[in-house]
Amino acid sequence: MNISQLAQAAKKASIQLAATSTDAKNNALQHIAKKLKEREAEIIAANTKDMERSSTENLEAPLLKRLKFDSEKIDGVIAGIHSLIALPEPVGSTLCSTELDSGLELYKVSCPIGVIGVIFESRPDALVQISSLCLKSGNSVLLKGGSEAKETNKILAEIIKSASIEANIEKGWIQLLETRDDVNEMLALDEYIDLIIPRGSNEFVQYIMNNSNIPVLGHADGICHVYIDKEADIDMAVDVAVDSKCQYVAVCNAAETFLIHADVAETVLPKLADKLAEHSVEIFGCDKTQKIISCSPATEQSWKTEYLDYKVSIKVVADITEAINHINTYGSGHTESIVTKNSAEADLFMNLADSGNVLWNCSTRFSDGFRYGLGAEVGISTNKIHARGPVGLEGLLIYKWKLKGTGQIVSDYASGTAEFTHNPLNKNFSI
Amino acid sequence: MNISQLAQAAKKASIQLAATSTDAKNNALQHIAKKLKEREAEIIAANTKDMERSSTENLEAPLLKRLKFDSEKIDGVIAGIHSLIALPEPVGSTLCSTELDSGLELYKVSCPIGVIGVIFESRPDALVQISSLCLKSGNSVLLKGGSEAKETNKILAEIIKSASIEANIEKGWIQLLETRDDVNEMLALDEYIDLIIPRGSNEFVQYIMNNSNIPVLGHADGICHVYIDKEADIDMAVDVAVDSKCQYVAVCNAAETFLIHADVAETVLPKLADKLAEHSVEIFGCDKTQKIISCSPATEQSWKTEYLDYKVSIKVVADITEAINHINTYGSGHTESIVTKNSAEADLFMNLADSGNVLWNCSTRFSDGFRYGLGAEVGISTNKIHARGPVGLEGLLIYKWKLKGTGQIVSDYASGTAEFTHNPLNKNFSI
Question: Is A154 exposed, middle or buried (0-12, 13-18, 19+ CB in 10 A)?
């Protein structure tokens, strides 16, 4: 099958999957978990091939670590599937209900989106997590993983596909794409694919956004800020800033810029510089920062840079308004934190900083689906519609309106023979 | 100001508007309503110019009727503003709350999307409705109305702008675009504009979707179906079908295709044809339909056609599965109705027909924001994400995550010094 046929098959399966019972979906997830354990040796053998090839190709050590899929990681994804089984059924929830007239009842009911295309990085666990989230939420999925993991992805997709078919799930719901060309073909298939979730480098996500009419859920950049207010607890501020920058530099919720209120800059900056030096962080400071601590000069480009590295931009600001304006000008709408003892300032910051996640007196690194308690995360969104911030199961759902009548026609309401009541029903949809 | 500057000003205003109090927004709406009444004569004078010019240009009668904006229609939009004032504040609702750890509280809080671009048809009431919905929901708005209504739109936008500024709303939140070129410029401004809602012809909406990276909320087509099941009450089925087709043919929720179960085709079709003849509806029937009633032959193209006219396609289907497959193949995801006494069949249909609105034993014409009791409608969406079906105030909102801490850093959770509790809080966000 070519990519268009795969997508068409996924669309067809998605219709049935939307109406598949909780038990059927959970049984299938159970069976997938069982088969992943049973076929562990095959998975590890495939992963060994990927690891050996990638070693030969000099893949960097952190990426090799992410690529590795051993018995422990397999147990981890199986545990994830069991947590997912335990979650309540996301499809079929009545979100609101209204009596339009006697015997004419309107229900807004949650349902799957349909067909999701997910492009993810080299971690093979992502394939299992994403496909099980899609199955639980009743969506078909087209998957494209990192090419480093191609053997591992192939066996994992094959196991999930065959186990789900054995458990009577409509075949076609899970499709593995193998090449970059496959992805390019997928981008044109807005007839069959309802949403694309790209995870990966900024350039890659931007490329997807620019080359498809299919809605895209994701984030291109993670330029996160910590603003240290003049009323901050200085030690707390330094700890939060250093954790935001250094706890894990290679991720989108790591801070890239610190904004420091001028009134406390002379106190904060030397302390901050000392702590950052312990992590060998290179500082790019504005003119005022350069006068207080030793650092490289920041340029206009510094404020737009996502370092993903032991580097940070620092700017001294006159007040909270300048901090907020800076964030709304240079930020990427991802995560911003304010450190202050002044609750009115915190409130202002959290209302005016136009980002998916606005934090007070804590590290930007908390902005994450697992830490938020959302369960597995499909991705982080800097979109302004549908879903924002860490996206869990809920981001894979939409709703449909179900209207139950007893023969009503609009002519009667237009002529005044009948009248709408519009009474809240507060009841769940049932036939 | 050029369009980019207008959009930038709208973006800037949207930040303040997001944090504007309920009272301030309602006062502004009140003041706008007052000024619309006070300046009624100016509005009518401008509308008279539009009406005269459009008459000279031979605008069709139904369009002239929609263009007319007299004292009664002005009172109508003013009543609409008063209803909007009475609605609860949509911004700042806590959608969920979780204690991540002692002193670390997460809240998901509703907020405006930001800047909305709306392109609407020749009804000047749309300008008032859309801009007041945007103000209530805290969004900036760029408006482009039909060129037939340009004088009316200009005075209405001017009144709303000046009245809102007098009521201390951040200036820049409402901007009127005047030409088609302005719209084309707007489509490129994804840096400032978060969502485009185009209302108008299919071709136009499709053009917008194909020519912008900005998310689009809307519907290109309204190919709605009525399926008459073998267990339908025949009289009810005929009434529902005729109302769906004929009650108002020029709208997106009018039916374009009837699907008739083969077992009842010989009973239903003659009755249906008689009633349709009363409205002079031209029928395009499949082979089987042609053997039962007199009609023109349907072609493959008939199933894809949105007539918006006294024309209908009719197909005899073997069973409900063929009906559902037909809908999912040729439909536009707008509105589908099943007429049947069999509740299991209705349930199946409502689960498997992949449309925003799925109806049982009632007319497709009910699929509308006003009839659904949603208040004013921004538009109808056939999107699969964010909002589906009739879109009211809620479609102009998104959320942000607000996290209140007391100095927490992620290192402590990574090292095991601290642990997440993830307890539901069930409380509203407050500082």
Answer: middle
